[in-house]
Amino acid sequence: MVDVADRRPAPQQRADIAPAKRALPRWVITTISLCVFLLLWEIFGRRINPIFGSYPTAIFSASIELVRNGKLGAALIQSLQPFLLGYCLAIVVGVPLGLVLGRFRAVEAALGMFVTGGYAMPLVALVPLLILWFGLGFTVKAAVIFLMAIFPIVINTWLGVKSVPKALIDVGKSLVASDAVILRRIVLPATLPYIMAGIRLAVGRAVVGMVVAEFFTEISGLGGIIINAGNNFDTATMFVPIIVLMAIAVGLNHLIGWLERVIAPWQAEIAGRDQN
Amino acid sequence: MGEVSLIDISKNFTLRVDGDVQNVQALDRLSFTVRDGEVVALIGPSGCGKTTALRIAMGLEAASSGRVTVDGTQIDGCGYDRGIVFQHAELLPWLTALKNVEFGLEMKGVRGATLRDTAVKYLTLVGLSDSLNRRPYQLSGGMQQRVGIARALAIDPKVLLMDEPFGALDAQTRETLQGELLQIHARTNKTILFVTHDLDEAVLLADRVVVMQNGRLHEIVDVPLPRPRGDLAMVRGSEAFAKTRYHIWQALHGGATVH
């Protein structure tokens, strides 16, 4: 069967084909913004006592040193293991929990408050308790990351389910679909954009959770480098893992955005969002 | 067979307006029957309960009292003996036209080669054999509604229920689809009950028009136009059309009926 969509564009697509004004590509704007930021930081950073602040070139040479002696690579691997476990577990548990919370009144009434409360939980205060439960090593770090990441995922999924148009549920009902089928084949795909937003928000929280865990349990990984360098008043070295962490968060965000366009291409089309 | 009856249907619900609880009676002992193979239009001013009546007939809403029967059997919720077409098509945006039609068939338990063949057959019936793999956002409003009609027809219901199916379309598309619906009816001889607020559409398509006022049955008007109604422009120009239209207009505006 030939897909005519390729040959005959629908009205919405025609707008894209019409010659648009030549705008600067997004990556150019992003690059300029980054360069200006680094330049200003370099200029003003150099005027400050190196204990109180640092600047890009100093941080860069510190990072070369950390890469050469292998500390950065080792710390990265040490940090990423509990990060990936905690974060993935948060997705695997959080998405179904959010779906059920949004779909079933009884579950929402029974568990809703724990989730909204849990989101505001001062997790740092609970770390000593978590250490008693899980020890000082890998497990407690994964647990802290999991607890930080799961709430935005659950809450976003939950709100997403709440905003699924009732009319789409009616489509399922009119075709005598069971609750489980409606949840899996109508509610889940309709909620996907919200789920992806939750997963994106969770990246930032998981990174914070990771560093908190490395500070307050057994000192290790990227958080460990931060704390050791800070204690030695080596500010430039301290900045290296901080920047690496931020870069990881930005990278993951882009990866998730790309994933969203692959598995939910209709959403970008409906919203008329920029494809970049 | 495909005869659907609404028997003594009432529907009450409560509205909370600024702390006041108001009782609203959307439907008041509404009864009428759509005979096998017949096309019946349900018309009335906005808020008269016509969509509620259709949703109750589908089983999407429960009546406060009364019952709905299909071929004499009382309905219990939705069923494959009835298919519904919504006002805004309500296609699943992540599925192609073909998959949207297949979705309904899958729910009914159709599997294998029959699944695709049946879906293609009904999309061809509504003139979309060239657009099977488009997603809803790549289809015009009229094409989306065609997919909606194909989805409802594909499960082979006895009765087709339509909730202002052409109300959201532009005038030209509406006329085209009205003509197509008549052709589909001529070919399949399905029983059709449709809600509309468009007087012309009611007279043009229906054998009988049920006029509602404030949740009650006001009058049932026979449309003395012969079938098949091939050339709709000619039908519109006929005297019988004008007379029936005027009759219903009077009924809608609460005036004395003209004979």
In brief, what are we looking at here?
The complex is a heterodimer of chains A (276) and B (259). Chain A has twelve helices and no strands. Chain A has helices spanning 11-17, 26-45, 56-68, 71-103, 105-119, 123-134, 138-162, 166-174, 179-216, 221-231, 235-263, 265-271.
How would you sum up this structure, described in words?
The complex is a heterodimer of chains A (276) and B (259). By secondary structure, chain A is mainly α. Chain A contains 12 helices and no strands. Chain A has helices spanning 11-17, 26-45, 56-68, 71-103, 105-119, 123-134, 138-162, 166-174, 179-216, 221-231, 235-263, 265-271. Chain A is globular. Chain B is of the alpha/beta class. Chain B has helices spanning 50-58, 97-108, 113-125, 141-154, 171-188, 199-205, 232-237, 239-252, and strands at 4-17, 20-34, 39-43, 65-70, 73-74, 82-85, 159-163, 191-196, 208-213, 216-222. In chain B, the strands form 2 sheets. A 6-stranded mixed beta sheet of chain B has the order 6-7-8-3-9-10, sandwiched between helices. In chain B, β7, α5 and β8 form a beta-alpha-beta unit. The radius of gyration of chain B is 19 Å and the shape is globular. The model of chain B has no long low-confidence stretch (mean pLDDT 92). Chain A binds chain B through residues 1-5, 10-13, 165, 167-168, 170-177, 181, 185-186, 189-190, 192, 264, 266, 269-270, and chain B through 58-60, 77-80, 83-84, 86, 88, 90, 92-94, 103-104, 107-108, 130-140, 155.
Query: Low-confidence stretches of chain A at least 5 residues in length (pLDDT < 50)?
Result: 1-15
Provide the residue-averaged pLDDT of chain B.
92
Segments of chain B where pLDDT lies below 50 for 5+ residues?
Answer: none
Number of helices of chain B: 8
